[in-house]
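Bench notes, bay 3.
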Amino acid sequence: MDMSSNSTTSTCNSSMLWNWSTLNTCFLTEGWHVSSRATFAASCIGVAILAIAGEAARRACKDYDHQVHAQLNAPGALSAVNGLGWSSRRATPGQQLVRSVLHVVATGVNLLIMLVVMTFNGYAIVSVLIGTGIGKFFCDWMTIPHSEDGYSPCPEERGEGAAIEVSETKRDSVHMVHCH
């Protein structure tokens, strides 16, 4: 008996060209085989959720870095003097471990998203774009520091008249206060 002519089995159609295929497609592995429109819709929703998770992981990294930065700049924080006489403060090994784990999670999620995009499926790519847009909207809301007592980082708002521009740029995060 020849089992290769079995009509109930379906194979994954993979293409290295742009495509809009919905049935018999695979995402990441043969185990993620889409055989119906319902599973394809669920896959697109899952891809969008994965992209939202990527934005949330990126935000978690940024928030934790800001928390560690605030702890290191707190009054009474220990500092070390290097050979040049400069004072520096370092994260504790535990803080650095948490930073590393968060970075690995964010990188892993984003690599999975990249692999989904490499299927060249238009629906999957649109799902990633929608997910990153939703993730950016909800997970990375921009705020400008302004305290309850009316303090503003902008001197002209404090009546000092001088204009400042502060910019701190890091990988994947930018904190800027522009006053002119």
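Next record in the batch:
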Amino acid sequence: MNTNIIIRYVYRILAAWLSLCLFASPLLAEPQLLAIPSGTAQLGSRHGEADERPVRHVPVAAFRLSRTEVTNRDFDAFVRATSYVTEAEKRSWGWVWTDRWRQVQGANWRHP
């Protein structure tokens, strides 16, 4: 068998393996989720913007939260697997914090 053919074959196997490691493994890994019990949360501020007042208490149902943050790589794998489109991508603008929240055309998780 020709050495070049063997090298190309090995290269394809390695490329497929690397692709699986980079994109499928976050989806296959079981996330560590913390159970957050139901309760009440205090929302708002006495000193914030007009739409942040008044301080109020709201009920919050129990939920689970990942122990670690979601990386862009993790989110990219999720998007590739599910074809999910964020609200910012649908409307072609997103909220960006500078000294305050601003609507920025074209801003989304891929283009913060």
